[in-house]
Specification:
There is one protein chain. By secondary structure, the protein is mainly α. The chain has one domain (3-121). The chain contains 6 helices and no strands. The protein has helices at 11-22, 27-32, 37-53, 66-69, 83-100, 104-114. Helix 1 (11-22) runs antiparallel to helix 3. The radius of gyration is 19 Å and the shape is elongated.
Length: 126
């Protein structure tokens, strides 16, 4: 195993590595597509493993609940992003932009898919 996996990093260093790379790298894809829960769960497994085990192959106890780790620092958490909530927020941002902005892509989406109906009335494609 390489040092980048956390073998030689402190808990704070592993936390910075999680926030800077393991969380931020998939954000673009999360902003474009609804990610299945199984994918987000697997990503959380890798983030938990790096935080608590630090690159060692031995299992270690988790010192805090993952919900608490994902809480903001001001609320006693470690400030790690909750990927499921972030995925929903980034997708909602596109809907908000569609409703509140005018541009080429908004015009194309409105004429091709929405056709004058409210967005709330649109059904999910199977």
């Amino acid at each position: 195993m390489g040092a980048w996996q956390g073998k030689f990093l402190s808990l704070g260093g592993r936390l910075v590595l999680i926030n800077s790379s393991l969380t931020n790298v998939p954000l673009y894809m999360l902003s474009m597509y609804k990610s299945p829960r199984s994918i987000l769960k697997n990503m959380d497994i890798f983030r938990k493993r790096l935080l608590w085990q630090g690159g060692h192959n031995t299992k270690k106890y988790h010192l805090a609940d993952w919900k608490m780790v994902c809480s903001p620092r001001g609320q006693g958490g470690l400030g790690v992003l909750n990927l499921h909530k972030m995925n929903e927020a980034l997708l909602a941002k596109w809907i908000w932009r569609l409703e509140n902005s005018n541009g080429l892509w908004q015009t194309i989406i409105r004429h091709k898919y929405i056709k004058g109906r409210p967005i709330i009335s649109l059904k999910k494609r199977q």
